[in-house]
Every structure is written in structure tokens, then in C-alpha cells.
Amino acid sequence: MSWHAGSCHCGAVRFRVRIDTYAALDCNCSICRKKGFLHLLVEREDFEWLAGQDAISTYTFNTHTAQHYFCSTCGMHPFYVPRSHPEGIDVNARALDDVPVSAFEVTRFDGAHWEENVETIR
């Protein structure tokens, strides 16, 4: 397992994440499709928020379980607390500074039909 730094576009929000498996989900739900979010689910202990807590805004919808964080300066969505795994963190693999998307095995997830498919997320 190795640590990798990440940030929002302007750099106000900084974090690091420990990755053991380079696997990500490409979800087709309405919000992920529009944001271009590429999901890297990690345990809380594998995530460290380094800076920018004061720059973060939160968006919720539907059940209000997921906490969609975005930078209030640049609007970028670097990570969030997912509805499927509220005890973890879902990092946008595209927000990592030193890991290209090509390093990940990307699996499609049918989030447009979330209720029927959520059990397939590990």
C-alpha cells in the first residue's frame, strides 16, 4: 500500500489516500456522470485530509446520506462520503496528483439503477 496526494483544481483542498488496489468504478448515475467522478473507495484510516476544511462546501440530495464535498473556490469534487459506504471515503481518482487514470482497472457501475446494483459495490 502506498500514499498518494490529491487536491481540488485550485489546491485549496488537499488530501492523501493510501491505495492497496488500483481499482475504480465509473458510475452512470445523474451526479457522477455530470461530475466525471471516478470512484476509489477507501476506508477512513486510508484517507487523510491535509488542508482546506474551511474551503469545503457540502451538497446532499435524495436520502441525504452521501455528503458530496466540493471546493467553494474552484467547484471541484475531490472526494465525498458515499451512501453505499458511509463509514468510508470515496476519492475521485481524477483528483490524484501523481496517479494517472490509466493506472486503475476501471469497472462500469450502473448507478442509474442504484437500488438494484448497490450490492455489487465492494
Q: Please indicate the count of domains.
A: 1
CATH topology: Metal Binding Protein, Guanine Nucleotide Exchange Factor, Chain A
Q: Outline the biggest β-sheet.
A: 7 strands, mixed
Order of helices and strands: EEEHEEEEEEEH
Overall pLDDT score: 93
For the biggest β-sheet, the strand order reads: 6-7-8-9-4-3-10
| Distance between the first and last residues' Cα | 18 Å
What is the oligomer described by this structure? single chain
Helix content: under 10%
User: How would you sum up the global shape?
Assistant: globular
Structural class: mainly beta
Number of helices: 2
Which stretches are low in confidence, meaning pLDDT under 50 for 5 or more residues running? Answer: none
Radius of gyration: 13 Å
What's the CATH class label? Mainly Beta
Residues in β-strands, percent = 35-45%
Number of strands: 10
Q: What secondary-structure arrangement, pairings included, does this model have?
A:
Layout: E1 2-7, E2 14-19, E3 23-27, H1 30-35, E4 38-43, E5 47-51, E6 56-59, E7 67-71, E8 79-81, E9 88-92, E10 105-109, H2 114-117
Parallel strand pairs: 3-10
Antiparallel strand pairs: 1-2, 2-5, 3-4, 4-9, 6-7, 7-8, 8-9
